[in-house]
Fold this sequence. Notes:
Layout: H1 2-6, H2 27-44, H3 49-69, E1 88-96, E2 100-109, E3 118-127, H4 130-133, H5 138-155, E4 166-171
Parallel strand pairs: 1-4
Antiparallel strand pairs: 1-2, 2-3
Amino acid sequence: xxxxxxxxxxxxxxxxxxxxxxxxxxxxxxxxxxxxxxxxxxxxxxxxxxxxxxxxxxxxxxxxxxxxxxxxxxxxxxxxxxxxxxxxxxxxxxxxxxxxxxxxxxxxxxxxxxxxxxxxxxxxxxxxxxxxxxxxxxxxxxxxxxxxxxxxxxxxxxxxxxxxxxxxxxxxxxxx
Length: 176
């Protein structure tokens, strides 16, 4: 990627980067190529399968250790399957961060529709104030549910009582 940013074919180089008279064999172009090579080498020199596998094992070990012994707890994930790309219908994406509740109502049309497979119908960001952060027990979830209801009303999304709205929730912080 660095090479793509720094080294372009002479015909693609903008006038601001080099005057139009600079040729591919010009020392300035060669210096840019050398710089690009040095930058790329500094990122990639230590990368090989063995070093990446060692890094991966150390990371797994640390994660496993902290999952067992850390006092900070994350909610378990109940997502046990990966998306297939064939999903269709309306979905709600919710991300609960330390300062904002982010929601997106999306319509999925399956991979077969190409670029039109996803339509973002509405997004809303609701700040999580200090008062909201201090809500206890179910009160915080009631606040979230009200924000979701408000968004669905704005979008004209109605549901029968027994028709669930498929959704994904991400928490960006540990909770008690």
